[in-house]
Amino acid sequence: MITFLANARIIDPESLTEREGNVILDGRLIAAIGSAQAPKHARVIDCGGMALAPGIVDLGVKVGEPGDRHKESFRSAGLAAAAGGVTTIIARPDTNPAIDTPEVLEFVTRRAEAASPVRILHMAALTKGRAGREMTEIGFLLDAGAVAFTDADHVTTDTKVLSRALTYARSLGALVIGHPQDPGLSAGAAVTNGKFASLRGLPGVHPMAERMGFDRDMALVEMTGARYHADQITTARALPALERAKANGLDVTAGISIHHLTLNELDVGDYRTFFKLTPPLRAEEDRLAMVDAVASGLIDIICSMHTPQDEESKRLPFEEAASGAVALETFLPAAMRLYHAGHLTLPQLFRAMALNPARRLGLPQGRMAEGAPADLVLFDPDAPFLLDRATLRSKSRNTPFDGQRMEGKVLATFVGGAQVFGERD
């Protein structure tokens, strides 16, 4: 089918530009940009001057299959992603059991392809059971379709095991994703150290724990030459080390969650567990430093870090409650806060949310160019709404944005040229 998207505000993250124009989708690809007339027999969609951008490539989504399907299934995650403009989910391996063998990877791949309206690719565990004792069969997992390797928030404390895994990953060209935290300092922490944590009587972790974990990982990357991505850099103390690593030619990139870019430690308020995240929310000074780092390109990727938790695991005292928040549907509206505040332009946002994650993983998505996959999101960046978590499509609804006024509404989502969300004709 040929689709003619007319009168669109085209967001191009490669050239960091936006312009008015039309886009033609032919089958699964973008056939033309800027064409004045619709081809014969094409389906015409009037975009009404709304923003048209590459679909979000979300690096680091937790899906409950296998093991926690009651929290999130591939079907519910896919529907939430389509409604949020996410066209490619990069799923984490912190499942039960962990995705640490080719057999488990092949199972979840088949399940995802059958159930989800959007693309779902999978990361595999770096060590067996994410236990940090023995590395997985990285070569076989690559052959089975793993796009990266990570133990998620389980930090490998045995540096010899980690160095061997990095060396082996380097020999195969595999990307390793680390969680830069010192596990000793961060164990049992619920918030970031500071006056607020003391006033609330909550156990905290010093921001230096992130810097220490990152410094260790950079030393091992320098030793092994591995490709490395830090899943979240959230403190200003870690930025100079990241800048040095890049300046020294290490193959290193870094990400951050949309929650750490739009919320701070004070949002925890009176022990609101929907704001309990890993790593914990940081000081406002750190948040602003991270926004500047994204704008400059020092931090490469923004992700949702979507982590569904059921009501029972969140309705507990703050220290005991599970960490994490859902974000597939709120990712884009939350990002619009940065746009409306004047911190980031739409092309800069989609560079970090679509282009850079696709490039880091070697995927063709994330581009607004002829011949690129027709994975697109049409949205109104100015449309206001009041978020009601009861309307979310995720099975779990642990969002920190419940009841908040937001801006940015997805009108249509296309995956491989097929419309998977929206009724705008």
Describe the structure.
The protein has 13 helices and 17 strands. It is an alpha/beta fold and 425 residues long. It has a single domain (54-361), classed as Metal-dependent hydrolases (TIM Barrel), CATH 3.20.20.140. The strands form four sheets. Strands 1, 2, 3, 4, 5, 15, 16 and 17 form an eight-stranded mixed β-sheet that branches. Strand 1 and strand 2 (17-26) form a beta hairpin. The mean pLDDT is 96.
Query: What's the CATH architecture?
Result: Alpha-Beta Barrel
The fraction of residues assigned to DSSP E strands is 15-25%
Q: Quick one: CATH class?
A: Alpha Beta
Main beta-sheet annotation: 8 strands, mixed
Which terms summarize this structure?
single chain; 425 residues; TIM Barrel; 30% helix; 13 helices; 4-stranded parallel beta sheet; 23% strand; alpha/beta; 8-stranded mixed beta sheet
Task: Give the topology, please.
Blueprint: E1 2-12, E2 17-26, E3 29-33, E4 43-46, E5 51-54, E6 56-61, H1 74-83, E7 86-91, H2 102-115, E8 119-122, H3 138-143, H4 159-172, E9 175-178, H5 183-186, E10 191-192, H6 195-200, E11 204-205, H7 208-224, E12 227-230, H8 239-247, E13 252-257, H9 258-262, H10 284-296, E14 301-303, H11 311-314, H12 331-340, H13 346-361, E15 376-386, E16 405-415, E17 418-421
Parallel strand pairs: 1-4, 1-5, 6-7, 7-8, 9-12, 10-11, 12-13, 13-14
Antiparallel strand pairs: 1-2, 2-3, 5-15, 15-16, 16-17
Helix pairs in contact: 4-7, 7-8
Produce a short descriptive summary.
The chain has 425 residues and is α/β, with parallel strands linked by helices. It has helices spanning 74-83, 102-115, 138-143, 159-172, 183-186, 195-200, 208-224, 239-247, 258-262, 284-296, 311-314, 331-340, 346-361; strands at residues 2-12, 17-26, 29-33, 43-46, 51-54, 56-61, 86-91, 119-122, 175-178, 191-192, 204-205, 227-230, 252-257, 301-303, 376-386, 405-415, 418-421. The protein starts with a strand and ends with a strand.
